[in-house]
Structure formats: structure tokens, C-alpha cells
Design brief:
The complex is a heterodimer of chains A (337) and B (284). With 337 residues, chain A is of the alpha/beta class. Chain A has 13 helices and 14 strands. Chain A folds into 2 domains: 221 residues, Rossmann fold, CATH 3.40.50.300; 74 residues, Alpha-Beta Plaits. Helices cover 40% and strands 26% of the residues of chain A. A 6-stranded mixed β-sheet of chain A has the order 6-7-8-3-9-10, sandwiched between helices. In chain A, strands 2-1-4-5 form a 4-stranded antiparallel β-sheet, covered by helices on one side. In chain A, helix 3 packs across helix 4. The longest helix of chain A has 16 residues. Chain A is elongated and about 80 Å long. Chain B is mostly helical and 284 residues long. Chain B has one domain. Chain B is built from 11 helices and 2 strands; from the N terminus they run H-H-H-H-H-H-H-H-H-H-E-E-H. In chain B, a hairpin with a 2-residue loop joins strand 1 and strand 2. In chain B, helix 4 runs parallel beside helix 7, helix 7 runs antiparallel to helix 10 and helix 10 runs antiparallel to helix 11. The chains are: A alpha/beta (337), B mainly alpha (284). Chains A and B meet through helix 2, helix 3, helix 4 and helix 6 of A and helix 1, helix 4 and helix 5 of B.
Amino acid sequence: MFAIELQKLMKSYGSVKALNGLTLNVPEGSLYGLLGPNGAGKTSTLRIICTLIAPDSGKVTVAGINALVNPRKVRRELGYVAQEVAIDKILTGRELLNLQGDLYHLPQRDKGKRISELIGLLDMGDWIDRRCGSYSGGMRRRVDLASGLLHQPKILVLDEPTVGLDIESRSAIWELLLQLKDQGTTLLLSSHYLEEVETLADQMAIIDDGKVIAEGSPDELKRALGGDRVTLKVREFSNARESEKVKELLVNVDGVRQVVINRAQGFSLNLVVDNQGSLPLLKEKLAQNNLQIFAMTHSLPSLDDVYLQATGRTLLDAELEMTASRDLRKESKKSMR
Amino acid sequence: MTKSLIEIDSLPSEGWPFSEIIQETNALTRRLFLQLMRRPSTLLAGILQPLIWLVLFGALFSKAPDGLLPGGTSYGRFLGAGVIVFTAFSGALNAGLPVMFDREFGFLNRLLVAPLRSRKSIVFASVIYITTISLLQSLAIMWTASLLGYGWPGLGGLLLVSFTLLLLVFAVTALSLGLAFALPGHIELIAVIFVANLPFLFASTALAPISFMPSWLGWLAALNPLTFAIEPIRAAYAGPIDLGIVLLHAPYGEVSGYGCLFVLLILTVGLFFLISPLLNRKLA
């Protein structure tokens, strides 16, 4: 049984394609991580699930309900913690939670009880009666988390829940999310922190250019990659021609499965090898051709490798690329509706 | 953080539509009033401004010859109704601004992901808020007007003023919220408000009766919703209230007090339904 089923979602903003046939199934009771660089379509996906926007085409089923036909029912089952925490500065945290409770039609008695419960759980007692305008990022995020949890949703959707937070708030939020999962809540969170997905998620998908390009558990994905990883630089900053040449040399060495040129990292080479037995062979081959080794590191496959394998670039590079091509004005427009 | 999250084990079942609309409208209204109480400067300015209008404008024409205006009323007394209606109109026209800012800051998304029984609750909350403020402003205007010797409409008059303002405020608030959902940002909304505000005042019977106007302006004034609100309120000031008599001598015919209120009612209902699709834009 799936808590969330997305089928072939398409969504464009003007000429920009945000989603390009995205299909995603989130199993009930899982903590599902969506990994991808900024601008990959994570936020659009989550906004569609939360019924804030409709896709141009495709099917959206949340908790067994067709979200495009019956969005109000979906809203009752769903808690949403948005990326940009929008908070009314002039209200206190408690007033905000009260407002939220009324918007979800909690009975008055339950509402008060639930709010004080969450204040205890998220350790907000000291400052919840102060105006939100005075809150730090971590405080705001906690109030926001509380308001997403107020109506005890079956499904909680979080858009980059710990971005920009201090380590303490971050681990407090991680702990809470794991606890929610233990109690049977389905959680879907987007992130561009590998560490976050690695620590929390039991299922994950990598999104790039508006579609899912890999999915499974983090371990499955890493295991599926197989082999060890070697990163090699023959000089600190190489160039396309030289790295091509080195690639030619190494691709036929025994035990080498694949060689990828990583342009963003000074044209370093990312190799997949059967095991560490290949390392001496690589060194030998380079020495035969009078090539130096500036750096050579060896590791087991990481989530970053999964990402690199799927997209041909590391998450960090993708991020840099996206940042350069982003149109902030357009983005702020599409976040309004 | 070891305490169980699930203490109230039953998820609230779907309640009565009506009580849910009351609950959400009530909560949204409370938010607006909390904002007002903690930032009272807009209310103070909103009360002061029409009083300045009343005093200055009233003084401007205080030496106009007697008998110039129909029924021989003084200009100050004539003006009171205009200032009351114009103040309510401006307030309601601005009702969309907080919603627009909520949209821009992302707070509106909080409301839109919540299972609101009806998004019209957002409109209702604004109407309740603006109407209350308009009534406070009107009381201040009427009280000042009576101090200036422009008369007092009496209890029945007060009720008529309240009812008329409610209709006008509902219509204009609905329009303004519709714009807040339809326009791209607050700059555009402010531009619309700026352009609409004063022309609606001048092309109405707030400052002068239709008989003073050239015929084209008379036509505009006789079609202007503000006029339909001004005339009943002015009638309340003129003496015993009789909505059956003709209050507006429009180029297209005579309109009674009931006629004026009926036009406002139609306008309110019409605009309310006209903006409904905007509230539910993209998703219901």
C-alpha cells in the first residue's frame, strides 16, 4: 500500500519545465527521502502533493484519495512543513498554533491539550508566548513543525526541514522525525543534504531535471553500484584533453569497470574498480606513461557516488550549476499563488 | 523527547460544515484583530483622517449661500454622509492588502494547505474586520459632525448607517480580495487602489448633488455604488427616515431608498460570487 502515488507528473512555469514525467511511490509507514539539487523539482513535487498547485498532467493519489478531485480531503490527512517558514511576526507562537488548530477544525478541548503536548515535546515552553518576530531560525522551524503535527496527520511532508539550522536544532528535529516514523506516520522529506537522507531515510529517490532517476533504500542503491571507488588526479587542475588521455589509458586496466571525468573537480577521474587489488595496477600504468599522481583516494561507494552514477555529476556540482542558472525573480513568483 | 505523540487517539471526524466555517472564520478574524491591537497606528490614522476631511471640507464651503443645496441643508450636514461612505469605501478597498502580503510572505500557503471548509472564510473574516473598523470610524465622524452642529441621525439612523455600510463594505472587500488573488503583487494592487480611490469619490454625490454636475458626470455619479450608499445615509440625517421616498434623481429615473439598498445588495451578492473562482484558483 502506498501513502503517496505520483504518476507521470508534468509541470511547467512558462518555458521552464519543473517536472518532466515524475513518477514516485511512497510506501505507507516509510521515511522517504527526496534527494536532488536545488531546482531539480523537489519543491514543485511537494507542493503538488500538498494541493498548493496542480500538475499540468499526471495523477496524484495521497492516502488513497485523488488529490486533484478531492484536495480538501487530502489536506485533512496531510501535514506540510514548508521550506520558507512563513510566520506572522506579530502573533505569539501559541496564538499561531491556536489559529492553525482552528483551521484544521480541532475541537476546543483537544486543541489546547494537543498544543501543550507539542510545546512539551518540542521544548518550546520558554518562548512560545513571545511574539514570533523575535524567534531564531530553529525556533521558527519548531513552531512550524508543531503546526504541521497539530492535527496528527497520517502523512507529514517536509521541504528541507533542517536547511540553515544549527546542529542542535537539526538533531532534535531528526530525532523527532524518527520517533514519528516509529509511531506509524509516513514521512516524505526533501533534502539536498546527503547526510540527512543517509541518516533518516529508509527509502529514497534521486530527482534531477524534474524526474526520478534512481530509487530504493540507500543501502540498496549503494550495493547496486558495487565495486570500490577511486578518485584520481594527475595534477591539481587538469584539463579536458589530458583527462581524456588518462581515461583512455586506465579504462583497460584489469578490474576497472568505469571511468568518469569530473569536470567540476578540476577534471579529476572517478573510477569504479572491482576491489583494491586494482590500485597497484593503476599506479603502474600511470608510471609507465610518465604521469604523476597528485592525489589518489580509495573508498567504498557512498550516497554521493550513487548520485554521481545516476546524474553524471556530484550533488555539489549540480548545486553550483543550478545556482548559476537560477532565476530568483521567477521562483519567488511561482511560490506565490 | 520521549513522550508519545499520539495522545488523542481519534482523529477529529468531519464536523458540521456550518460550525467549521464559523470556527475558521472566527480564528482568521481573531488574527486580524490581534494585529490591529498590537499595531493600532492604522486605526488611529483611519479615525483621524476622515475627521480632517470633515472639518476642512466643511469649512471650505461654509460660506456657500443658503438654499444652494436641495432641501436647504448646510454643506457640513450634506458632507457628513459622503465622508462616512468614502471612509468605509477606502477601508474596504484596502482589505486585499493584508491578504496580498500574506501571499507574498507565504503565510497564505498555510491557509491554503489547511482543509478550510470554504475559502470564503477568508473573505468573511476580512468583511467582519473592515465592517467593525468602518463602524468605529463612522461613529467618530458622526460624533464630530454633531459637535460641529451638523446634526445627529438618531438610533434608527445609526442602524440604517450600519446596514448600508455593511452592504457596501462586503461588496468592496470582496472585490479587493479578488484583486489580491488575481494581481501579481502588492505594487499592482496599490496601483489599482490608488487609481480607483479618488475618482469614485468625485464621481459620486459625496461632495455635491447630481444637480450641480454636467450631465456626463451626473450619469457616472448615478451609476456609482458609493452614491447608492450615500443617499440613504444622507436621508437618515435629513429627518424621519422614510426609505419609500425618492432619494436619488438620476438621469435614468428616480430611485427610492429601498431601491438604493437593493442595488447595493445585488452588487454585494454579484461580486461575492464573481470572486469565488479566484479564491479556488487551480484547486478547489
